[in-house]
């Protein structure tokens, strides 16, 4: 049997294989509410055999959305449609997960397929916030520097969002601390120039994430698992770097985080990133080997053999698949066939196996 199709137990959860649907914004929500698009989109990947579905970045407060089309979980009314999604993912043999997010200075943008530029005024725009008043693009509006009281509110928003996620039935809670969104803006000295307890030293820059993890962790029992997505590097000198990521992962492990989902970049514009096959895998490997925490590899992993090799070489424990699952919802079923493994097809599709 391949490693890609071996089980992995985390707390009381059993992942039936190592393929995880990577969170991907659909820009199809209204006032944060999920729609039938989300129901069909996530159900299809569960039917397609992934071990877990991590739902796209779901905002913990309205101004934490990247765009007006983002999913949200800032009010109880959001829960009922999310419950439907969770139920159907589980009925189709996959574990439902949710990525909780705040976009910080990268909020108030157009939908992804409308180029995603910032909407600076009028309908569908709002005042962005950040650790320091530095816009992402020079031409963007300047974000408001968060006060310590406002930071407290954001930590509270993450905790309430996690509580609602549990009520909806999600089993994996992933905190989005990557891609230049709010938490990453705090981690990196290039975007965090605060002089208070949230800026300056490594301990201060990671404080927001640590406090969120502490607050969310208190709500979870053994039937849930807490994951954190990070960008392992800003890909520039003097930015957030792999060494700091490893130190952070070690602290998160001690705090009960089960998986580090290892991505990179996104915090600064105009950065040269050597994008290519497996380009982020070395970061997952480094964090795994130096801390012993479970890691997920992501980025341009598109083939069964490629995923299997990463696992065989112990470079990561889980494989997050993004765009390949948009092209092929049945990626996992096809991957099992190509590796000679037996992954249960839906009975309705048996004759196509
Ligand atoms: C993404 N990605 C992403 N990442 C994340 O952490 N939260 C999100 O909501 C999104 N949204 C999103 C939307 C779309 C349309 C794409 C294509 C990507 C990044 C994604 O999860 C993944 O890390 C990258 O796409 C790289 O993996 P692949 O696509 O090469 O497998």
Automatic annotation (TrEMBL):
InterPro entries in alphabetical order: Aldolase_TIM (IPR013785), OxRdtase_FMN_N (IPR001155), YqjM-like (IPR044152)
Keywords, alphabetical: Flavoprotein, FMN, NADP, Oxidoreductase
Transmembrane segments: none
Cofactor: FMN
Gene Ontology MF term list: FMN binding; NADP binding; NADPH dehydrogenase activity
Pfam families: Oxidored_FMN (PF00724)
Domain of life: Bacteria
UniProt-listed Gene3D superfamilies: Aldolase class I
NADH:flavin oxidoreductase/NADH oxidase N-terminal domain span: 3-339
Name of the molecule in the record: NADH:flavin oxidoreductase/NADH oxidase N-terminal domain-containing protein
């Amino acid at each position: 049997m391949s490693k890609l199709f071996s089980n992995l137990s985390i707390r009381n959860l059993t992942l039936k294989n190592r393929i995880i649907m990577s969170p991907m914004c659909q820009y199809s929500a209204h006032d944060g509410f999920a729609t039938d698009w989300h129901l069909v989109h996530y159900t299809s990947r569960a039917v397609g055999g992934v071990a877990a579905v991590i739902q796209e970045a779901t905002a913990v407060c309205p101004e934490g959305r990247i765009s007006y089309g983002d999913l949200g979980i800032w009010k109880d009314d959001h829960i009922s449609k999310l419950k439907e999604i969770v139920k159907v993912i589980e009925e189709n043999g996959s574990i439902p997960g949710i990525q909780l997010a705040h976009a910080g200075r990268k909020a108030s943008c157009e939908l992804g397929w409308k180029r995603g530029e910032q909407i600076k005024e009028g309908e569908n725009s709002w005042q962005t916030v950040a650790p320091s008043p530095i816009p992402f693009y020079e031409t963007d509006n300047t974000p408001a520097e968060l006060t310590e009281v406002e930071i407290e509110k954001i930590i509270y928003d993450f905790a309430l969002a996690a509580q609602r996620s549990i009520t909806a039935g999600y089993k994996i809670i992933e905190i989005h601390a990557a891609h230049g969104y709010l938490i990453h803006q705090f981690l990196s000295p290039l975007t965090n120039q605060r002089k208070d307890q949230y800026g300056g030293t490594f301990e201060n820059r990671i404080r927001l994430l640590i406090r969120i993890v502490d607050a969310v962790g208190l709500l979870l029992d053994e039937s849930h698992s807490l994951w954190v997505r990070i960008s392992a590097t800003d890909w520039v000198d003097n930015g957030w770097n792999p060494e700091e990521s490893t130190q952070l992962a070690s602290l998160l492990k001690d705090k009960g985080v089960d998986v580090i989902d290892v991505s990179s970049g996104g915090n600064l514009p105009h950065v040269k990133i050597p994008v290519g096959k497996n380009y982020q895998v070395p970061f997952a490997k480094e964090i795994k080997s130096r801390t012993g925490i479970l890691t997920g590899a992501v980025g341009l992993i598109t083939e069964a053999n490629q995923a299997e090799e990463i696992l065989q070489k112990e470079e990561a424990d889980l494989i997050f698949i993004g765009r390949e699952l948009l092209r092929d919802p049945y990626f996992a079923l096809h991957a099992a066939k190509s590796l000679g493994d037996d992954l249960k097809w839906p009975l309705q599709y048996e004759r196509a196996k």
